[in-house]
Amino acid sequence: MNMELGSVATFSLYPDLYARFRPSYPEELYDWLLPLCPGRQRAWDCATGSGQTAVRLGESFSRVDATDISSSQLSAAEPHTQVYYRECPAEVTPFDDDCFDLICVSQALHWFHLPSFWPEMQRVLKPGGIFAAWGYHHCVVSPEVDRACSVLWSIIEPFWSSRCQLLWDDFRGSGCPLPLLKAPSFTISSDWALDHFLGFLNTTSASKLCKQALGESILDDACQRITRAWGPRNQVRRVDLPLHLMVARKDDAGGYAG
C-alpha cells in the first residue's frame, strides 16, 4: 500500500471535485526539470491522482505510465494519447528494471511507505535518470484573505496527517538514496474567483476529514469570513502556493539497493 487506509478513502471522496479544483503546476518547473532527463522516451507519474502531472508529461515523453492506488481517482483522470493509467501501489510495480528517464511524485510522496518505495524507484529508474517530488501546503492571497483563511486552517489543523510534516519540511529526512540536485524555488500562481478558491480549500485532505468527523457545516463560518474578505464573488485574485521540491539523479553506473 502506498497510502494510509484512511487517506485512500479520503482521496477517493469526490474525485471529480478534487480534479476540478487542483491548481496547475508552473510551466517553469517543467522547463527546468525536463532538460535534466537523459531522454524523453518514458516517464512514470507515481500516485497520479487525477492525472494532472501525467498529462503534462505526455506532451514531452513518448510514453507516460501513470499509477495510483485509488480506482476512483483514476476514473476521473484526464485521458491523453501518450498516458497509460494503471491501478497500482507505488512500492510494488510491474515495470522493468532501468526503464524510466523520469519518475515524478506530485503532492503524494509523504503518503508512501518510503522504506519500500525507495528500492522500487531505484530499480525502475534508468542510470542517469531523474527522480522528482514536489507539493504545496499553505497559500498566499492578500493580508485580508490570509487572515480570514487562518480561521479555517486552525479548524482543520488537527486533521492533517502527521505524514504531511515530511512535505512541510521540504522532504528533509525522507531518506532518498540518490544524490540530491540543487533546485530553484517555484511557486504555483493561479488566478481564481472566490468559488474556485473555496472549492480548493474544501477539497484538501484535512478539510474532508474534518467535515467527515464534525459535520459538513463545520467550515461554513470560516468560509463566510473568507467570502467577506475576498470582495465581489466574481473578483479574480492571484493565489500563490510555494512549492516544496526535491530532485535527485541516479548515477550512471546504475544499480539499486535491493
Automatic annotation (TrEMBL):
Q: Where is the signal peptide?
A: none
| One Gene Ontology biological process | methylation
The organism sits in which domain of life? Bacteria
Q: What Gene3D superfamilies does the annotation carry?
A: 1.10.10.2560, Vaccinia Virus protein VP39
Domain Methyltransferase type span(s) in chain numbering: 45-132
Task: Tell me the keywords, alphabetical order.
Answer: Methyltransferase, Transferase
Q: Name one GO molecular function term.
A: S-adenosylmethionine-dependent methyltransferase activity
Keyword DNA repair: yes or no?
Answer: no
InterPro entries the UniProt entry points to:
Diverse_substrate_MTase, Methyltransf_11, SAM-dependent_MTases_sf
Q: Member of which family?
A: Belongs to the methyltransferase superfamily.
Q: What is this protein called?
A: Methyltransferase type 11 domain-containing protein
- Organism listed in the record: Chromobacterium violaceum
Question: Taxonomic lineage per UniProt?
Answer: Bacteria, Pseudomonadati, Pseudomonadota, Betaproteobacteria, Neisseriales
